[in-house]
Amino acid sequence: xxxxxxFWQDSGYHLLERSERGHLRVTxxxxxxxxxxxxxSPVPESNEAERQLxxxxxxxxxxxxxxxxxxxxxxxxxxxxxRLVLAFRDRLTAADSLEDCYLQIFLAPGGVSLPPLFLDxxxxxxxxxxxxxxxxxxxxxxxxxxxxxxxxTINDGAIMAADAETVEMFATTGGxxxxxxxxxxxxxxxxxxxxxxxxxxxxxxxxxxxxxxxTVLNLNFAGAGLDALCRVLERxxxxxxxxxxxxxxxxxxxxxRWVWHIGLDVEATKMLNDLYNGVDVGEGxxxxxxxxxxxxxxxxxVVAPGIAGRPVYLALAMTESGQLRLKPQNLLVNLPLAERA
Length: 341
Hints:
Elements: E1 17-18, E2 24-25, H1 28-35, H2 48-59, H3 67-71, H4 76-94, H5 98-107, H6 116-130, H7 137-143, E3 150-155, E4 158-163, H8 164-173, H9 177-185, E5 196-198, E6 215-218, H10 224-241, E7 245-250, E8 261-263, H11 266-276, H12 282-286, E9 289-297, E10 312-317, E11 323-324, H13 330-333
Parallel strand pairs: 5-6, 8-10
Antiparallel strand pairs: 1-2, 3-4, 3-11, 4-6, 7-9, 9-10
């Protein structure tokens, strides 16, 4: 019997429990991980009140913390950091699951009030749970786009997405950390490091470096990388909403009855809105469009009246600087479902 692949050990997945539905339940150990983060761990300058609060929250990470107790920390930065983490903790513990918490954040009136870091961490661990048992490395690599920004380069027609943070690290340190930064500051040429493109032939290289986020995904039309992205987007919808959809790349939208679209990132949302309204987007913006998709529902009855039986069009685009910042929540909160109509 083959053991299941393990990956993304940094997601916190192993600290959580699964419900019968397969969703994630928060645990004390998961909450403790947040109180162990450097943003809220005591430093030499911390006063006794801060040290006592930190120790108390490690003992019982669900303990209530009053404003008076926070004020006793005296350091404004420490107070703000604790306030943010405690607000996030309270959201996690109030929800039935991490998935419910994630949806509630985006569906709540007044907009999103949590820092993007927390949202990415939720997407990270939920995607990890969704992919439990996955054997296709391309699917796992494609799902990295749900919680990590990608730096896109287009060479000779090849659309290559690399982890933006990893690209930045290599650009500034050559992959050698603080030593590399010193070398760079001394204007000494760094050794060039080329990141590996994961494909169907070499997919095994991914597993031993999954938590390094240092592989590249090819997003060319009709390629295995873009197909993998379609498959994990389908699973994302199914995992949260128990709605089965089919997503396929298309080269253009030729539909006189185009009725609904969803941008998978900020740039794509603006572009689809303009295209739908007949606004000229210009060649420069169109060049940043990475992919279009057609999404169909396996059960048309789950779709709002007037839209049932019609496809939903999706798009993926990069910024002027070549960054792709996927917003997987768009695919959940903007679906034209009958129950929301």
